[in-house]
Specification:
This protein has 466 residues and is of the alpha+beta class. It is built from twelve helices and 13 strands. Helix 1 packs antiparallel against helix 2, helix 2 runs antiparallel to helix 4 and helix 4 packs antiparallel against helix 5.
Length: 466
């Protein structure tokens, strides 16, 4: 048999000349949203022995790599803000008498940040998915990343950016036309879609909806923050009172639409990725989302003050007041971008809550002068648990026939007296049973095995139940 991969089935050959005993298989795969997922299981050859120590879960990521990935994401989002907002304002709101040189620098800085972030993402995806260090990147790994959906999305983004350079040059120079704007709009749609196609939305329960909603979320963020940046850095300082009187009401409507899109898209994303109140409150993803919602609420409060200044005309006559309010918005939203960068590399709450419910695997070996007992309990959580017991000779060299088994479970801390566990013999040395553990805590399991007419012994173990 040769190693082969067919859909979700992997066939791997193993060494046929291995000693008898129990072996551990660890695996690491890349999920549809480009994140590593791992696990492991044991199997025995000839006889069951003490399982190997618990191995790497398979999904651990080098700390430096994980930090670099989040940083690259943040720089990419910052690049979007610096690119989209200035392009939009220069195209539709910029007074003709004002020079475009300085705002153009923001645009090209945004270009540079997005391209750097995308190239860094391609490089980091290799050690991120393989579990290696920052510079543990080889040609085969890069080829695998480039051939994945994640790689295709990143390469498409770079292609869109390179094509957009030709269309943005006329905007920077103030010589753009309708055709330039329409082609740039088409490129922007494709470019924005590359972010959700390389992340969680591509693997959600309803991918088309999630991808579209995430793209709307990104567009709204980039328009809102990019426009605010142009206001605070340039327009509120350089434009005249008459110009601000014309610009600010238009920008206020844009900001309202952007914030509405941000909130609506965030609501739909939350429903798709969270799924339940328990998932919202008990997972890292849910708590990060709550922190993001709190920060956005604070930003909206400041934005309401800014809008009041615009609607009452105070912003046009006292631009310094409006400028301070906008600066506060930008500082808070910079923190929001940081939280978002962490969110996109955190297991979605819907998935995390399933993993929590699956629980863990408790395994131990108890030995005395009469026997060695292998104890396995799954999932080691509140509720019903499956118990498997394997009896061996004291030296664990071979299975041991047991004449009679008795198991009790108790929780002294909660005054739960020993309850006998019904057992089903599968072989002379292997029994199984279902244990009801309705309360979390340190449960005491007591095992009594009679191996002959007169030989009997009891062993105990404490099992932490979550």
């Amino acid at each position: 048999i040769r190693d082969r991969f067919e859909g979700s089935i992997a066939t791997i050959t193993v060494d046929q000349n291995v000693p008898r005993g129990t072996y551990l298989v660890s695996y690491r795969v890349i999920s549809a949203d480009s994140h590593p997922v791992g696990g492991g299981f044991t199997y025995s050859v000839g006889e069951r022995t003490t399982p190997p120590d618990e191995a790497d879960s398979g999904s651990d990521v080098n700390t430096v790599v994980a930090t670099a990935v989040v940083t690259a994401k943040f720089l990419g989002y910052a690049g979007l803000v610096l690119l989209v907002g200035p392009v939009l304002v220069l195209t539709l709101l910029w007074p003709r008498r004002l020079a475009r040189t300085v705002p153009a620098r923001l645009i090209w800085t945004g270009f540079g940040l997005i391209i750097a972030s995308t190239l860094a993402g391609l490089w980091l995806q290799v050690p991120y998915t393989a579990g290696g260090g920052l510079f543990e990147v080889d040609l085969d790994g890069l080829i695998a990343v480039l051939g994945s959906q994640f790689g295709a999305a990143q390469l498409t983004r770079i292609g869109v950016l390179l094509a957009a350079i030709l269309l943005i040059r006329p905007i920077v120079a103030g010589t753009d036309g309708r055709a330039d704007r329409l082609m740039l709009l088409a490129l922007a749609v494709v470019g924005f879609l590359t972010w959700p196609l390389a992340g969680h939305p591509a693997a959600s329960t309803i991918p088309p909806v999630s991808v579209a909603v995430d793209a709307v979320h990104l567009v709204s963020m980039a328009v809102w923050l990019g426009g605010l940046l142009m206001l605070v850095l340039f327009l509120l300082r350089w434009a005249t009172t008459e110009e601000l009187g014309a610009i600010l009401p238009i920008w206020s409507r844009w900001a309202t639409l952007a914030v509405s899109g941000l909130l609506l898209a965030g609501l739909v994303q939350g429903l798709l990725e969270i799924g339940s109140l328990n998932a919202l409150l008990s997972t890292t993803y849910g708590r990060l989302l709550l922190a993001k919602v709190g920060l956005v609420a604070l930003v909206l409060l400041v934005a309401a003050i800014s809008r009041h200044l615009v609607q009452t005309g105070i912003g046009a006559h006292r631009p310094s007041w409006l400028r301070r309010a906008v600066w506060v918005e930008l500082v808070i939203t910079a923190v929001v971008l940081g939280v978002t960068s962490t969110l996109v590399h955190t297991t979605p709450a819907r998935t995390a809550i399933i993993e929590q419910r699956m629980g863990s695997f408790f395994s131990t070996r108890l030995t005395n002068d009469l026997f060695s007992l292998q104890v396995e309990l799954y999932p080691a959580r509140r509720g019903n648990n499956s118990l498997h017991l394997y009896a061996f000779t004291p030296d664990s060299s071979r299975p041991l026939s047991v004449a009679e088994w008795k198991v009790t479970a108790a929780l002294p801390a909660h005054e739960v007296e020993p309850i006998e566990v019904p057992l089903l013999p599968l072989t002379d040395s292997h029994v199984t049973g279902e244990v009801s553990m309705p309360t979390a805590g340190d449960w005491e399991l007591r095992f009594t095995l009679r191996v002959s007419e007169i030989d009997q012994a009891t062993v105990n173990v404490t099992v932490p139940i979550k």
